[in-house]
Amino acid sequence: MAILIDEISRTFGEFLLLPGLTTKEHVPSNVNLRVALSKHKIGEEPRAHLNTPFVSASMQAVSGSDLATALARKGGCAFIFCSQSIEAQAEMVRAVKEHKAGFVESDSNLSPSNTLADALKLRQETGHSTIAITESGQKHSKLLGLLTSKDFWEYKDDLSRPIMEFYTPMERLVYAEEGVTLQQATEKLWKSKKECLPIVDAQGCLQYLVFRKDYFDHHSNPDELTDEGKRLFVGAALNTFDYMERAKALLDVGVDALCFDSSDGHTEWQAQSARTLRNKYGPAVVIGGGNVVTAEGFRYLAEAGDVDFVKVGIGGGSICITREQKGIGRGQATALMEVAKERDRYCKETGIYVPICSDGGLNFDTHIIMALALGADMVMMGKYFAMTEESPTPKITFKGQRYKPYWGEGSNRARNWQRYKQSEKPELVFEEGVDAYVPYSGPLGEKVDVSIAKIKATMCNLGVLTVKEMHQNARITRVSELTIVEGGTSSVQQLDRIQVQS
Ligand code: IMP
Q1: What is the CA(319)–ligand 1 centre distance, in A?
Q2: CA of 434 to the centre of ligand 1 (A)
Q3: Is the model's pLDDT at 193 over the cut of 50?
Q4: Pocket of ligand 1 contains residue 319 by CB under 6 Å
Q5: Which helix (H) or strand (E) holds 336?
Q6: Residue 117 near residue 160 (C-beta atoms within 8 A)
Q7: What is the tens place of the pLDDT at every residue in 362-375?
Q8: Pocket of ligand 1 contains residue 261 by CB under 6 Å
Q9: d(CA 303, CA 193)
Q10: Which of 199, 270, 389, 395 is 20 to 30 Å from 350 by CA-CA measure?
Q11: Which of 77, 259, 320, 357 is catalytic?
């Protein structure tokens, strides 16, 4: 007879944290969110770590190079999706590794014959108000000038007029030549009191733009995660099919961490693939495995797969219909608690700590906090990042609200059949994810700052200063449905939520 596990599968919303003693030391500025990304002997430094315990899901609608850049600047790591060609994925990794802080590639470019109406349309699409005017209208062509909102009046000028009548030409611009350092560029911006400094090559073709606002931005990212050469840190996903070829291409362009992307990682395929990579590239390469929801799954990947970290979670993702389609999965809190217990047991036996990552279903900052308290070293999120400016999808407006598309890797849209081995054929037989929209939530940096502020504030309430201390000292209580109701507002009217009747 099948084994029945009597314990109920539980999820984050069923728990609350109890405060501990908050001493004068327990202030947010003393909280350190640095966590290990790779396995390590107790007492030794891990080969890789995160400054912020956030990683982004390997999904087409989430982890492109812009998002990876923005997340590394906040101290986390993106895993660039593998449901694309090896060349395209390696190119995304390369773009992050070659990112020169403060030097941005112009994404808004037009030619002088375009109209003001074209400029307004482009501004709406990109959200950027500085448009480079180049000979061909492409970003690396000869730079002729810049068009900003100061060059024309949207409601007064004739929008059908060509840009050539309005833009500020090179003779009146301050610019610099390629090779200039960020410090020199910033100095030039400061002295000229300009907002934007174009950088051109010897032929006068546009290479980068340096913005005054990025100078301030840089100063507000003290947690930036970089490699030894001060290049931004980035991860990439692998499948168990073309992993040898893919890993080589990714490592060649400088990827910092690899991670198998599979809905069920408790398989011989994954363990053997991870081992093969380990044998070829040695202990230095960081390899993540998963997903698992059981103690056995964790131990199998740690032992047979020799992986660096293990992702936990099946069926909890916001776009996921795996539980409905196949009836497998586990409440995320229960899965996490069981795997964290096994990680600690494994650590006691071997002296080796294998970090775990809670993947999927984190809908609120309180869920992130609870995942960390229940034993996760880091969290992987899809929806959270898909909503941000830097995710690779365009914004759309519906009934006055802005949204971004978000689809599962197991949906027909992504067709990531390697992630969902459903048959021997290279196709999805049935969908395990939906194709949807999520509200637009603005720039990633601002969103992460708020989440981090909440995590740090809660940790101060608990009387802990590190994620490790949180694992050891958090006291968690189960809540009744009425307690959850009690936690919301009661018998009050919030003015902004009252429907105005006319
Ligand atoms: P979210 O943060 O709740 O949006 O969940 C993201 C996670 O869902 C990813 O990291 C994957 O583990 C998982 N996932 C991605 N695509 C699919 C899918 O199509 N079906 C089921 N799970 C998915």
Answers
A1: 6
A2: 10
A3: yes
A4: yes
A5: helix 332-350
A6: yes
A7: 999 999 999 999 99
A8: no
A9: 59
A10: 270
A11: 320
List the one residue out of 14, 20, 21 whose CA is nearest residue 477: 14
Closest residue by Cα to residue 245 from 120, 473, 82, 427 = 82
Beta-carbon contacts of residue 311 (< 8 Å; ≥ 6 apart): 259, 265, 288, 289, 290, 291, 292, 356, 357, 359, 380
Half-sphere exposure of 332 (CA within 13 A, CB side): 31
Q: List Cα–Cα distances, 101 to 76, 97, 179, 185, 206, in angstroms.
A: 16, 10, 14, 12, 17
| Length, in residues, of the chain | 502
345 is catalytic: no
Q: pLDDT tens digit string along 284-327? A: 999 999 999 999 999 999 999 999 999 999 999 998 888 888 89
Q: Which pair of structure tokens corresponds to residue 332?
A: 């995320």
- Which of 81, 239, 319, 325 has most ligand 1 atoms within 8 Å of CB, for mutation? 319
486: buried, middle or exposed (CB in 10 Å: 19+, 13-18, 0-12)? exposed
Give the pTM.
Answer: 0.83
User: Which residue of 330, 409, 422, 435 sits with most ligand 1 atoms within 8 Å of its CB, as the best mutation to test the pocket?
Assistant: 409
Whether 347 sits among the annotated catalytic residues: the reply is: no
Closest CA to 354 of 51, 52, 46, 77: 46
Greatest pairwise CA separation for the chain in angstroms: 83
Answer for the pair 382, 54: CB distance below 8 angstroms, yes or no.
Answer: no
Cα of 380 vs centre of ligand 1, distance in Å, is 9
The CB of 62 under 6 Å from ligand 1? The reply is: no
Is 431 near ligand 1, meaning CB less than 6 Å away?
Answer: no
